[in-house]
Design brief:
By secondary structure, the protein is of the alpha/beta class. The protein has one domain: Vaccinia Virus protein VP39 (Rossmann fold). The chain contains 5 helices and 7 strands.
Length: 183
């Protein structure tokens, strides 16, 4: 899978973090990962290959999901809104999103739903554009981008703890992380 040049740094960091989490688990445990706003499946397929976890990708656009299904039978792709996930609570170990949060009509509701479907101790990872910086100000969706502070607040409001935000070297993208409490 070909990552875009601006994605390599943070997707590599994401894989490193997921591998650290995988090592903390029992070797026979299959990690379940949800890719929110999966588009045509690029990140979902990449993580399935690189991490060796069971991946489900969701996207509200039927044609995106159809294209993703043609590319991989190893990943389950489902037409679904991030704001109204059909999965039972506690279904996934991790949730990820690559440059999609800003396109979701109600991102705060999507974060609450992600929190709901994560197991206790599960983690949410978001890679998205940084709002309010010169590098992204000309983008068409720039008004929908989160600042690092706003993303951290949104993660907290959705119930995530221990959130952290790491910008990439260019300062245009960030990797946000939050953990669901163990209760």
């Amino acid at each position: 899978m070909d990552l875009l040049e601006n994605e390599v740094e943070l997707v590599t960091e994401l894989c490193e973090r997921l591998n650290v989490e995988k090592e903390k688990r029992k070797p026979e445990a299959t990690l379940k990962l949800l890719d929110i706003g999966c588009g045509t499946g690029k990140l979902a397929m990449y993580l399935q290959e690189e991490i060796g976890c069971e991946v489900t990708g969701v996207d509200p656009v039927q044609t995106n999901v159809e294209k993703a299904r043609l590319k991989s039978s190893a990943v389950m792709f489902v037409v679904q809104s991030a704001e109204e996930l059909s999965f039972a609570g506690g279904s996934f170990d991790f949730a990820v999103s690559l440059k999609a949060l800003h396109e979701i009509p109600n991102p705060k509701k999507a974060l609450r739903e992600s929190h709901r479907v994560l197991k206790a101790g599960g983690k949410m990872f978001i890679i998205d554009w940084i709002g309010g910086v010169p590098q992204t100000s000309s983008h068409g969706h720039a008004r929908n981008y989160f600042s690092p502070q706003r993303l951290e607040e949104a993660l907290s409001e959705a119930g995530f703890a221990d959130s952290s935000i790491k910008p990439n070297r260019e300062g245009a993208l960030m990797l946000g992380e939050g953990r669901k409490n163990m209760r």
